């Protein structure tokens, strides 16, 4: 192999580096993995994708001598690209070493005013000392550093491997010699945080034993014709690739029978992730069955082990449903964070941003809010018997069992425990195509400071504008309308744009 086609990758073994690998291969390059510090010093170009939390990453680098090699490599101004935590780690050492100079970064030349994908719990702030090597910043709350550059050393806080075409072009500009790239440079303009449109694939094995994308009506996924089959709307890997091409900002896989089948026994789901991540360069979330588990041979698996397997297979975030309800109930009862819940364990190692909690609430109508101890709301549309209020009861096991906790109480509790995002379904609206439950979504998105994904009920482009204009939802998710090809993702985006809502096109 010709050396120019080889990229050295520093993977210290935490989180999903599969996507970076897939993106590099997709651009026609081969990967050489760093085994020893010497591999770093001998690299022609080095990519350091940082995923996971800061402290464990630093430990690994320091204990293996990689940290020192990395410092030398960077000080010698060798071609380097740090991603996400790869920027923050560089940042720490850079402060000490006083990186200066370099105001622009040609690897960002194709971005223009398009959006890139940020997912992180910590950030680096601009200061007098570092202002000279900042090549772009991001405005979200305060201004923070989006990328830095000095000489041949680049680092980006966002994930180019998860930012669609625009992200791939950042990688391409780093990897290819300048002469082979078009000189054209798009003018960079400020963009705002975009609302996300997410395609969701509910996956399960059908009665023939095939893994299929299915879709329920109020969580019932079986046909009501004589054969009572599991509805089959397509193949998971193919549909995910199609939604990526259509412009989905993220793709979610929910293993909807994960509560009863152990997901590490369900290897096809891991294979789905591995294959999907070869062609999908936006974030992938996977949920279903994430909990502590003892198998029939008495082998114990922690929820962290289950999640780790998902991350290794290509997931960027994991989503917890039933187990989050148990954890929240326990936490509200004892008021103690044990550190042992799945939410706490996984967020400690992979960061809060990698932990989504999926809530499956059912509307419970009330005449009088004081009838229940849970937070209720006054409905914009009365219940079937003229009820003016409702509370939203959390369920587990795919809606099969109601629990004594409301969606509001659950959302607040899981935010406290370290969840980084909430996927808010509504069983009553699921598959109905009559619009999102705006009352519910407003209540939850006003109550927490983590992003809320509105889900269940999308039937037309207007429903997306409705939920984004009336609530603080950061993203909207739909399944049925995309699977049945009733409304393409592109139409949703175009409509939102027309209505003045910022989206990634
Ligand atoms: O409890 O941790 O094992 O996770 C199980 C996961 O599977 C949960 O996230 C739960 O929401 C999901 N799930 C379980 N059973 C079903 C089912 O449908 N029988 N699917 C199910 C939930 C809801 C959304 C759906 C939206 C949008 N699906 O994912 O995609 O409602 O649909 P629409 O646009 O067609 O209205 P655990």
TrEMBL record:
Main location class: plastid
EC number: 3.5.1.2
Metabolic or biological pathway, per its Swiss-Prot or TrEMBL entry: Amino-acid biosynthesis; L-histidine biosynthesis; L-histidine from 5-phospho-alpha-D-ribose 1-diphosphate: step 5/9
TM region(s), chain numbering: none
Annotated compartments: Plastid, Chloroplast
InterPro entries linked: Aldolase_TIM, Class_I_gatase-like, GATASE, His_biosynth, HisF, IGPS_HisA/HisF, IGPS_HisHF, Imidazole-glycPsynth_HisH
Residues of the signal peptide: none
Enzyme kind, highest EC tier: hydrolase
The keyword Plastid appears for this protein: yes
Domain Glutamine amidotransferase, residue spans: 9-174
Enzymatic reactions: L-glutamine + H2O = L-glutamate + NH4(+); 5-[(5-phospho-1-deoxy-D-ribulos-1-ylimino)methylamino]-1-(5-phospho-beta-D-ribosyl)imidazole-4-carboxamide + L-glutamine = D-erythro-1-(imidazol-4-yl)glycerol 3-phosphate + 5-amino-1-(5-phospho-beta-D-ribosyl)imidazole-4-carboxamide + L-glutamate + H(+)
Keyword Amino-acid biosynthesis: yes
Keywords linked to the UniProt accession: Amino-acid biosynthesis, Chloroplast, Glutamine amidotransferase, Histidine biosynthesis, Hydrolase, Lyase, Multifunctional enzyme, Plastid
Gene3D superfamilies recorded: 3.40.50.880, Aldolase class I (3.20.20.70)
Pfam families: GATase, His_biosynth
NCBIfam families: hisF
Record function comment: IGPS catalyzes the conversion of PRFAR and glutamine to IGP, AICAR and glutamate. The glutaminase domain produces the ammonia necessary for the cyclase domain to produce IGP and AICAR from PRFAR. The ammonia is channeled to the active site of the cyclase domain.
PANTHER family per UniProt: IMIDAZOLE GLYCEROL PHOSPHATE SYNTHASE HISHF, IMIDAZOLE GLYCEROL PHOSPHATE SYNTHASE SUBUNIT HISF/H IGP SYNTHASE SUBUNIT HISF/H
Family assignment from sequence similarity: In the C-terminal section; belongs to the HisA/HisF family. Belongs to the HisA/HisF family.
The name this protein goes by in its record: Imidazole glycerol phosphate synthase hisHF
Source organism (scientific name): Salix suchowensis
């Amino acid at each position: 192999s010709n050396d120019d086609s080889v990229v050295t990758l520093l993977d210290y073994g935490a989180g999903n580096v599969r996507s970076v690998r897939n993106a590099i291969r997709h651009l026609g390059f081969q990967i050489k993995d760093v085994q020893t510090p010497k591999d770093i010093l001998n690299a022609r170009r080095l990519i350091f994708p940082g995923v996971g939390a800061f402290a464990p990453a630093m430990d690994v680098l320091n204990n293996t001598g990689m940290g020192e090699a990395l410092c030398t490599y960077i000080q010698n101004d060798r071609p380097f690209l740090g991603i996400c935590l790869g920027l923050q780690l560089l940042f720490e050492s850079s402060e000490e070493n006083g990186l200066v100079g370099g105001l622009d970064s040609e690897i960002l030349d194709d971005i223009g005013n398009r959006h890139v994908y940020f997912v992180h719990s910590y950030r680096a702030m601009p200061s007098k000392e570092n202002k000279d090597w900042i090549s772009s910043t991001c405005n979200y709350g305060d201004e923070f550093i989006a990328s830095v550059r000095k000489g041949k050393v680049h680092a980006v806080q966002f994930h180019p491997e998860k930012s669609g075409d625009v992200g791939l072009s950042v990688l391409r500009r780093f990897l290819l010699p300048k002469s082979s790239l078009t000189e054209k440079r798009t003018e960079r303009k400020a963009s705002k945080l975009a609302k996300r449109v997410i395609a969701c694939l509910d996956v399960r094995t059908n009665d023939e034993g095939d893994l299929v994308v299915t879709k329920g009506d109020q969580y019932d996924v079986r046909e009501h014709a004589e054969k009572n089959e599991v509805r089959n709307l397509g193949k998971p890997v193919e549909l995910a690739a199609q939604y990526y091409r259509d412009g989905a900002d993220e793709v979610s896989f929910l293993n909807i029978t994960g509560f009863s089948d152990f997901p590490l026994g369900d290897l096809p789901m891991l294979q789905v992730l591995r294959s999907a991540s070869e062609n999908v360069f936006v974030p992938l979330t996977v949920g279903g069955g994430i909990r502590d588990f003892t198998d029939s041979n008495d082998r114990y698996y922690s929820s962290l082990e289950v999640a780790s397997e998902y991350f290794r297979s290509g997931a960027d975030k994991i989503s917890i449903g039933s187990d989050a309800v148990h954890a929240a109930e326990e936490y509200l009862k004892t008021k103690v964070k044990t550190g042992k819940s799945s939410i706490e364990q996984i967020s400690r190692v992979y960061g809060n941003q990698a932990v989504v909690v999926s809530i499956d609430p059912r509307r419970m109508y009330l005449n009088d809010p004081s009838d229940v101890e849970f937070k209720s709301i006054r409905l914009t549309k009365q219940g079937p018997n003229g009820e003016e209020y409702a509370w939203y009861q959390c369920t587990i096991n795919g809606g099969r069992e109601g629990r004594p906790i409301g969606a509001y109480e659950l959302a607040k509790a899981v935010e406290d425990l370290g969840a980084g995002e909430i996927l808010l379904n509504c069983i009553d609206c699921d598959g109905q195509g009559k619009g999102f439950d705006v009352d519910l979504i407003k209540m939850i998105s006003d109550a927490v400071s983590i992003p809320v994904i509105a889900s269940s009920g999308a039937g037309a482009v207007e429903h997306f504008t409705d939920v984004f204009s009336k609530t603080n939802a950061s993203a909207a998710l739909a399944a049925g309308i995309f699977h049945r090809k009733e409304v393409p993702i592109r139409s949703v985006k175009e409509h939102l744009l027309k209505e003045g809502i910022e989206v990634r096109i």
